[in-house]
Specification:
This protein is of the alpha/beta class and 337 residues long. The chain has one domain: TIM Barrel (Alpha-Beta Barrel). The protein is 47% helix and 15% strand. The chain is built from 14 helices and ten strands. Strand 4, helix 10 and strand 5 form a beta-alpha-beta unit. Helix 1 packs across helix 10, helix 1 runs antiparallel to helix 11 and helix 11 packs parallel to helix 12. It is globular.
Length: 337
């Protein structure tokens, strides 16, 4: 039986079932009790997207999002804000007392084939005492494309980032399970694309993970079904505390999946976890996301490893938002039994 036919049967059964580091001594000392306090099972990492405004600047003011995408794809070095250098990210992470980082490929679009650049980046990591945990990949095509030729192109565009991850000593590459069509159609196509990319990752010792990142992927049961269909040890999920919007409307999200249900559904396949934060209340807690409840779900799943900070708020500076999220995760870790 052909692989796609197996996927169709597997997914049909599944869908049927569900429908019925810091710069001064004081701050460095703080880190020793920060990333590990409360639980030996979890440490804190920093997702580079937390500093996207720093590296990309004010995109609307610089030319708008259409300009940004066109520039990123054709003149990627010009997309980086003047005076900023993503080579500095390891040192910046260390300045927060964090020693593990999660890169975003769009900061390095023009560098994927530049081995001397990555040698310098690796040296910067070593100098800062920072390790790369994963690389988040976007704008490489749809792994769930219905056109097999387009899908293959998208899969192969990810190969180079798997190679970069391996060179840097990372364990994981985050991708998107995107495509056009019904939920069932995209699930079948995405599983096929992930299976092919997963095989390449397996040969290189790299995990391939999908984040709940909008559209069908923000439906926890849908993404869990895709994982079940792929059925590979090195293909899993990156559950994000936010990102459960299934449909956007003119005034924001018009249809949102239950984040706590979604986290529970995705954690059995998790290779990493992303702690999204946007708004904080007067107690320093996330105003709309219960970090304590989610960390109990994470702990109950048996997951052990890094929890990656991804601050995306507008009320605080990116630096202050990162610091607030560190403190919140500390409290959440301490609240665990």
């Amino acid at each position: 039986m052909k692989f796609k036919e197996v996927l169709i049967i597997t997914l049909a059964c599944f869908l049927f079932a569900i429908s019925s580091c810091k710069t001064n001594t004081e701050k460095t000392t703080e880190k020793s009790t920060t990333a590990k306090s409360g639980s030996p099972d979890f440490e804190i990492s920093l997702a580079q997207w937390s500093l996207h405004k720093k590296y990309f600047g004010d995109i609307p003011a610089r030319g708008g999002y259409d300009w940004f995408i066109e520039t990123l794809e054709n003149r990627p070095d010009e997309a980086i804000a003047p005076g900023q250098d993503p080579l500095d990210f390891p040192k910046e992470a260390a300045s927060f007392g964090i020693n593990a980082i999660e890169l975003v490929n769009t900061f390095y679009f023009g560098k994927v084939d530049d081995r001397p650049y990555w040698e310098k980046f690796k040296q910067n990591c070593e100098d800062a005492g920072v390790e790369v945990g994963l690389i988040m990949c976007d704008l490489l095509g749809d792994l769930g494309d219905a056109d097999p030729v387009a899908q293959k192109i998208a899969v192969e565009k990810h190969y180079k980032w798997v190679d970069v991850a391996k060179f840097l000593g990372a364990h994981t590459v985050r991708v998107n399970a995107a495509g056009k069509g019904t939920a069932a159609e995209v699930a079948i196509n995405a599983a096929a694309g992930l299976k092919e990319l997963g095989e390449y990752g397996k040969r290189n010792g790299i995990n391939i993970v999908v984040e709940n990142h909008g559209g069908h992927s923000s439906d926890g049961s849908w993404l869990a079904g895709v994982m079940k269909a792929v059925d590979m040890k090195n293909v899993g999920t990156l559950p994000d505390f936010g990102n459960f919007c299934i449909e956007n409307g003119p005034n924001g999200c018009s249809k949102e999946y239950d984040r706590y249900k979604g986290i529970e559904e995705l954690m059995p396949y998790a290779k990493a976890v992303s702690a999204k934060s946007l708004v904080f209340d007067k107690n320093g807690d996330e105003a709309n996301i219960d970090f304590y409840r989610i960390m109990k779900i994470v702990q109950a799943s048996g997951f052990k490893g890094h929890i990656g900070i991804e601050y995306e708020g507008n009320e605080l500076s990116e630096e202050d938002g990162i610091k607030k999220t560190i403190l919140l995760l500390e409290k959440a870790f301490k609240s665990l039994d």
